[in-house]
Structures are given as C-alpha cells and as structure tokens.
Amino acid sequence: MDEFCLKKMSSMLSDLDHLIEGTNPRVQSIPNMTVHVMLQKIRKDLKQMDTRLFMNSRFLEGLIED
Known about the structure:
With about 70 residues, the protein is mainly alpha-helical. Helices cover about 80% and strands about 0% of the residues.
C-alpha cells in the first residue's frame, strides 16, 4: 500500500468509529442525513483505493513479466 491508501484507510476507520459511537441506540447523536453522507464518503474512498490497488497490481505484473 502506498501513502495515499494508508491515509484513506485511516480516514475511513475514523469515520467508522464516529458512526459506531454516534449511532449507539442509547445516544443517537448523529442525524440520519449525516450518517448517509459519511457512508457515501466511505464508499467513494473504498472505490478509489480499489482502483488504485488494482492499477498498482497491474503495474507490478508488467514489471514481473518483462
């Protein structure tokens, strides 16, 4: 993993921690719209990481085959 992916992973873990704490049935301090937006951001970050890791693996395969 490169630095970009590590930063994205850290950001997603932080967002997930925030969602878990804020959606606790005893607390529920986060409005539904905020949860929706945070989940969309996590999905976007995962797609970016997936694309980047796929491209990196293709690049490495090209180096190995040559």
